[in-house]
Design a protein that fits this description.
Elements lengths: L2 H15 L2 H15 L4 H4 L2 E4 L8 E4 L2 E4 L2 H18 L5 E3 L5 E7 L3 H7 L3 H13 L4 E6 L23 E2 L4 H20 L3 E6 L8 E2 L6 H15 L3 E6 L5 H16 L6 E5 L7 H7 L3 E7 L19 E5 L7 H10 L7 E5 L7 H15 L5 H12 L3 H15 L6 H25 L5 H36 L2 H17 L5 H23 L18 E3 L5 E3 L4 E4 L1 E3 L4 E10 L6 E5 L5 E4 L8 E11 L3 E4 L9 E6 L15
Parallel strand pairs: 1-3, 5-6, 5-14, 6-8, 8-10, 10-11, 11-12, 12-13, 13-14, 16-24
Antiparallel strand pairs: 2-3, 2-4, 7-9, 15-18, 17-21, 19-20, 19-22, 22-23, 22-24
Helix pairs in contact: 2-4, 6-7, 8-9, 11-12, 12-13, 13-14, 14-15, 14-16, 15-16, 16-17, 17-18
Length: 656
């Protein structure tokens, strides 16, 4: 045998063994072996099926069908989980609710990179975890913390047209190693059916870059992106972080768009939503480039502000700043809320600790719950059960409560404060139950315990500082001394709870407390008589609300919506807030609670599109919304379609 044939044979065998379906088969075979079952007797047929949607799968006891290779891998992984749990296969059918389920990992420090960046075993474990968790997109972000990797190109290669541009501390050997590593990461992602996106977060070179001239920023960037895509064929997307402004817009149009359009394959160019412009789709079409906008959600939010919804000319991806503590209820709400307004999916920021029990739970909850929101909690608790045994349920409850403590609630101040205190209490109680069962020497739990206690303390701080601000506002309105004392006591409690906060936040709160201490001293020095305690109004219970939404509406026809409410005492009014997405703002119609019927004029529904709407129910001492954003979607979504001509009648109402 010729030497080159002998050298190629192991490489060909390795390539044949790599891939998402092979990974799924290996997981299933291990599960069968772990149950001491006969492989030939139970191993089902695995096949692609045109009758199954992309990324979906269907399992019957003798066959696993996938809509594509990714879906078939998910089916094999699900079968492996069933075998581990019960020793047999049950009929199952799942399909993704959120099309794009992504995670962003930011390169921020040399210490983490020295240990993990060049490690093939680390990336193999990481992408296996993403595949098991049903993530299908991975964003590796370079240059988030300048001057580190700013920009990344000189750390990866030297360009023939710009040989003078180089990074200090990155000689040819180091550049070659970095580029080989990037190829390895992108290829490993593809082996587990994860689309790899390279994030370029900074473009003007930092101090370590030598031989730079601002005059060739555009030409250098275009050549560098083109070379990056040629050297790493498994890159499926490029995130290009630009801002509004002529310099960045020129960089986008004349460098990034051109380089992506010339790649010779489909590469999606992603940019921040705020950097988009009306002529951007035209420029992308001219350069044969695929574009996607990335919309950053505020921390703790699971859907964008309703006023920000608009008709999108380009696909949108929501970027989610989430707590590293995974609350399944929050993620289930996000699975519906992130798609409002026509978005394709989300990317969540990865926790700083990648390989811990906490992070495994984070990925499992986020990926599995957004792929199939109805999936059993046991699916993503299995890792905790292997790590913590009989205490896994309490550990999961503590982590979920810490996640709720980090969420940004939208409600009345008292309601927000109560929810924060409740989340902190649930976390503290769950931690106490775990401590009673686990040995003090469990280092993994001890590290997690300190993080959870810190999160509970932060929730207490937010609750008390929020309530102090509310009481302070009431005091300035009423000058009632009981509010003055109560606000001061809440500020004292907030400072006791917030010992780990940044010094800037503690200093601001300390100055506010000192102001109230001074008000109390002046009030007592004046010898004013004590006022009777304030009587707080009792919050009324939420009334019964019943509304049956239509499935769709007809363009150019009025739409009547009815809300039934009981009981009625104390209700002041009912409002319908609606927005037809081709239009720019929410409109409001008000009605009496006794006859809560609303008609949206035909003139406001002239075009096909989406109608978003919600009801506000106003009481003398409270208000409510339907739908309740904390229980599901913040709005009802109704498709407006052209009316079928053959069935058109003057008073025809759309189907419910």
């Amino acid at each position: 045998m010729r030497w080159w044939i002998r050298a190629l044979t192991p490489w060909i065998a390795l390539q044949a063994a790599a891939g998402p379906v092979e990974f799924g088969r290996a997981e299933l075979d291990r599960a069968i072996a772990g149950r001491n079952l006969k492989l030939g007797a139970i191993r089902p047929l695995a096949e692609l099926s045109a009758g199954v949607k992309p990324e979906a799968f269907e399992i019957v006891p003798w066959r696993i069908s996938g809509g594509d290779l990714r879906g078939l891998m998910y089916g094999l992984l699900d079968a492996a989980e069933q075998i581990r749990a019960t020793g047999r296969l049950a009929q199952t059918k799942q399909e993704p609710q959120v099309p794009i389920r992504g995670v962003r990992l930011e390169l921020l420090n040399d210490e983490w990179e020295r240990e993990n960046f060049h490690s093939r075993p680390f990336w193999t474990r990481y992408f296996q975890m993403l595949a098991r968790s049903r993530f299908n997109r991975f964003h590796l972000a370079f240059g988030v913390a300048p001057p580190h990797w700013t920009p990344p190109y000189p750390y990866l290669f030297s360009l023939r047209l710009f040989p003078q541009v180089e990074a200090a501390g990155a000689p040819a050997f180091e550049r070659g190693r970095n580029l080989d590593t990037l190829r390895m990461i992108a290829q490993t992602a593809a082996d587990y059916a994860v689309d790899f996106t390279a994030g370029i977060w900074a473009h003007e070179p930092g101090e370590p870059i030598r031989g730079w001239n601002p005059d060739f920023l555009i030409s250098y960037t275009r050549a560098a992106i083109g070379n990056l895509l040629a050297e790493c064929p498994q890159i499926r997307g490029v995130y290009f972080h630009v801002q509004p402004g002529e310099v960045h817009q020129s960089l986008l149009r004349d460098a990034a768009l051109r380089a992506v359009g010339e790649a010779g394959r489909r590469v999606v160019l992603e940019i921040p939503k705020q950097a988009s412009s009306e002529d951007l789709p035209h420029h992308a079409k001219q350069r044969s480039a695929s574009l996607r906008l990335v919309d950053e959600l505020p921390a703790g939010r699971w859907y964008p502000p309703l006023d920000s919804f608009e008709r999108q000319m380009l696909p949108v991806l929501r970027s989610v700043h989430a707590s590293p503590y995974a609350d399944p209820d929050f993620v289930r709400r996000l699975a519906a809320g992130v798609l409002l307004g026509g978005a394709q999916g989300y990317e969540v920021h990865a926790p700083a600790t990648v390989e811990t029990a906490q992070s495994e739970l984070f990925y499992g909850v986020w990926g599995r719950t957004t792929y199939a929101p109805g999936v059993s909690d046991r699916v993503w608790k299995s890792g905790l059960e292997r790590r913590f045994g009989g205490t896994a349920a309490d550990v999961a409850q503590a982590i979920a409560a810490a996640g709720r403590a980090a969420e940004r609630f939208e409600g009345a101040p008292l309601e927000t404060v109560q929810m924060l205190h409740r989340a902190a209490l649930e976390a503290e109680q769950a931690i106490a139950r775990v401590k009673a069962k686990l040995a003090d020497s469990d280092e993994g739990w001890n590290m997690l315990e300190s993080d959870l206690y810190r999160q509970a303390a932060l929730a207490r701080f937010r609750a008390r500082s929020t309530w102090a601000a509310h009481l302070a506002g009431l005091y300035h309105q009423t000058q009632h001394d009981s509010l003055l004392y109560a606000a001061r006591n809440e500020l004292r409690g907030a400072l006791r709870a917030g010992v780990d906060l940044p010094q800037k936040d503690l200093a601001t709160l300390g100055a506010e407390l000192e102001r109230f201490e001074d008000l109390v001293r002046r009030h007592e020095a004046a010898g004013a008589p004590a006022q009777p305690a304030m009587v707080w109004p009792v919050a009324p219970p939420r009334p019964g609300l019943f509304h049956v939404p239509f499935k769709l509406g007809y363009a150019g026809k009025p739409l009547s919506l009815v809300l039934n409410i009981w009981p009625l005492p104390g209700l002041v009014s009912v409002r319908l807030n609606y927005k037809h997405l081709p239009n720019g703002r929410f409109e409001t119609i008000e009605a009496s609670p006794r006859a809560a019927r609303f008609t949206i004029p035909a003139a406001e529904l002239e075009q096909p599109g989406q109608l978003l709407y919600y009801f506000e129910i106003v009481h003398a001492h409270a208000s409510w919304r339907l739908p309740d954003a904390r229980a599901g979607s913040p709005v009802f979504v109704l498709r407006i379609v052209p009316e079928p001509k053959a069935e058109a009648t003057p008073n025809r109402q759309p189907p419910r």
